[in-house]
Amino acid sequence: MLTTEILLIIGLVVLITHALEAVTGFGCTVLAFPFVIMLTDNLELSKILLSVLAWLLAVYFAVSKYKEIHWKQFGIIVVLAGAGMPVGVLLFKNTDPFLLTGVLGVFIVLTAAFQLYRCFVPTEERRMPRFLFLPAGGIVHGAFAAGGPLIVLYASRKIPGKGQFRATMCLLWASLNTFLIVQYLTDGKLNRETGMDIVFLLPFLMGGIVVGEIIHKKVSEILFRKIIFISLFIIGIIMTFKN
Question: How many structural domains are present in the chain?
């Protein structure tokens, strides 16, 4: 089990990043990952802690906001992203994770910057094969439990309304992270000590949900889209330079 001092600092990170996910429906794992790795000095433990906490948050919103879920898009996303996850699990075991996240980070920064430009300076919509983001996002999620940025790039154009977007994304994370958690249990990595760390962090998770829910209700649809792409831009920078 981690020391109380380390857990308190991780708890603060969880409160802030999970409040953001409670607003937007994504982002908590990627934003928290570099800070938690630095504090624990353990990549695998950080991945497990954040996967379980993100799963709990996602289950809460998927259940409490189930009427807002866009079921058609959820089906498309979960099939294509789910197909990529086994590949990601293998990549995590056999590929330099810092190289993979660095390349992905650059792509996300450039794409988010373009989408932000379109938010502030409206331009003609160009057709592009956004569905390709889904298997790629599944691969990254299988590797790091953090495939959200690529999947969000697809969903942000396909799911109208901030409520539908958040509910659908949370159902997706709940589904994908269930796969990861079962894997952790099967491998014996989610043990009693890790479970105690997660229990310690639960009040911070609940605080993030409360804060994020309050902010979500006050944000307009236009501002919501800007927050999404600003978050993606920041996530991309973190992923690019954290190694």
Answer: 1
Let me know: does 25 contact 61? Beta carbons within 8 Å: yes
pLDDT digits (tens, 9 = 90+) for 41-75: 887 898 899 999 999 999 999 999 999 999 999 99
What pTM does this model have?
0.78
Which tokens belong to 98? 């810092």
Which residues span the domain enclosing 36? 4-241
DSSP assignment of 70-96 equals -HHHHHHHHHHHHHHHHHHHHHHHHS-
| DSSP for the chain, written as a single string | ---HHHHHHHHHHHHHHHHHHHHHS--HHHHHHHHHHHHH--HHHHHHHHHHHHHHHHHHHHHHTGGG--HHHHHHHHHHHHHHHHHHHHHHHHS-HHHHHHHHHHHHHHHHHHHHHHHHS--------GGGHHHHHHHHHHHHS--HHHHHHHHHHHS-SHHHHHHHHHHHHHHHHHHHHHHHHHHT-S-HHHHHHHHHHHHHHHHHHHHHHHHHHH--HHHHHHHHHHHHHHHHHHHHH--
Query: Which backbone phi and psi does 193 adopt, to 5 degrees?
Result: -65, -45
Q: pLDDT by residue (tens digit) across 26-42?
A: 878 877 887 888 899 88
